[in-house]
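Q: I have 544 residues here and want to know how they pack in 3D. Can you give me a structure?
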Amino acid sequence: MTKPSQTAPAYTIKNLDHLGLIAGMCKELQVAEYIDAIAPAKSKDHHLTHGQLLVSMILNGLGFVSRTLHMYPEYFEDKPIERLIGPDILAEHINDDALGRCLDTLYELGVSELYQGLAERVISQLGLTGKAVHLDITSFHVDGAYAFGDDDDTQRIQLVKGYSRDHRPELNQVILELITESQAGIPVYLQALNGNTNDQAAFKQVVASHLSSLKAAQESRYFVGDSALYVTESLQSLHKQGQLFVSRVPMKLRAAKLLVQPYRPEALTPMGNGYHGMWSEQNYAGVPQKWLLIFSEHACKRERKTLTNNIQKATEQALKYFKKLCNQRYACHTDAMKAVADFEKKHKYIQILEASTDKHPHYQTRGRPKKEQQPNGYEYQVTGVVVTSLEAVKTAQQQSGLFIIATNDCTATLSMEALLDIYKSQQSVERGFRFLKSPDFMTSSLYLKKPERIEALLMVMTCSLMIYAALEHRIRRGLKEQQCYFPDMHKKPSQTPTARWVFFCFSGIHVLQVDDSPPLIVNLIDRHRVILECLGEQYLKIYS
C-alpha cells in the first residue's frame, strides 16, 4: 500500500545582516518622514515615497556593494524589505526610474539647504553639544561626458578637470565641501562645487555666505579648518562675524618663518603625549590672535625619516639636471651664473661648489676654423660640483615636527592642551572623507546622466555618512551608559567599537520563513543582543 505524497515545505530566506541597524537609525532619526514632509510623492505610479527612496539608497550605500541605480532591484531581491523600508514594497519598485526622479527632486529642493535642515534635526535628536565644527574639502572622479555651453548660466555644478587630490588630473571631477561637528563626526553642512574649485576660494565663500546660519543652528564655539582657511579675507570675515576660529598657519608666511627659524627646544613647555608648545601674540590680517608653536616628537620622527628619503631622491634628481645644465651654453658669464643661482633656488637641499664657467669660442662659418681665424664671439658653459647643503638639511631637521595653530580666542582660559585638542578633532571630517572614498562604499568615481543627479547623489552619500556616524555614536554611548562591552577584533571587551566592525559582526543574520508560519531570525547570538539592547526597542523589533 503506497503512502500519500506530502508536499515539501517552502522555505524563504532573506539576508538581514547589519542592514537592520541602518534601517533602525533611519527610523529613529525620521529621515523618510523629514523628506516626505517637504517633498511628498507626486505620482501614484511610484510605490515608494521620496523619503523611502532616500532610505533605500542609504541602505545600498552602507551595504558596501556599490550597486548602480539600475541594479537596485537585484540588490534588494534577497532583503527583508518590509522590515527595512515598509510594507507592500517589492524589489522591482526600487528601480532606476524611481531613484532618478527622487534625485531630481532632491536637487530641485536644494541639496545643501535640504541636508542642513535634516542635520539640524539629527544633532538635536542625538543631543550632541560639540564645541567646534570642522571644514574640509575633497574631490570625486566623474565618468562620462557632460557638455556645457558657453551660455550655461544655471547654478548646477561644472564637472571639469582640476587639481586632483587622488593624483588623477586627467579625469573630470566634482568637489564636495563638508562641515562636520566634532563630537560624533556628523556632517552638518554640505556643498557640491565645480571640479576646478580652489580650496581657499571655497572656504572664503562658505565663511562669507553660510557661517551665520550654521552658528544659529549648531551653536558651536569654534570654526576649525586647515591652512586653506588661513587667508586674509576668511580671517577678517570670521572676525567681523564674531566667530572664534582655529586654523593651521601656512609655514610659507613670513611671520611663521620668523617664529620657527630661531626655534629653541628649551623655550617650549611640555604638554604631554610628546607635544611641546609656546604661545606667540600676533596680529595677522588685522585680526588679533594667538599662535601656538607646537613640536611633536612623533611627527618629528616620522618627518625626519621622510626627509632623509626626500633628500636622497632630490640629490639624485639634481645630479641629472645639473649634468644637463652643464651641457648648455650661454651668451655671457653672467647668464651662466644666473642659471646656477636659479638651479640652487629650485633644489633647496643641494648647493654648487666651485661654480664657474668655461669659455668657448664661437664661429659662424661651418667646419673647422682656419688657423689664425678670429672667433665671432664666445659662449660659456657652467662647471662645478653638486653637494648636499648641510645647512639646508640641518634647518629642515630642526623644523621637523613643528607646526603652528592660530586662534582669535585670546582669553587666558584657553590652554595649549585645549587648543591642540580642538584642532586635532579636525580628524573627524578627514575620517568621513576616507569613509566616503572607500572602494567598498559608492566608489570614488561617479556616473549619472545629469550633473544635477550627481549633486543629489553627493547628498545621499553624505546622508549615509551621517547615519554611519550617528549609529557609531549611539552604540558607543549605549555601551558606556549600560556598562556593557562588545568584543573587538582581538576578542577583548570594548566600549568603543567602530560601526564598520559591528556591521561585519552582524553578517550572516537571516530571516527564515517556512510556508505561512511566522518568520524566524537565524544566527542571532549574544554579542548581537548586546548591541540591540543598547540601541533600544525599535532595533530589537527589527531583529525579532
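Q: Anything worth noting?
A: The chain has a mean pLDDT of 84. The two ends are 45 Å apart (CA to CA).
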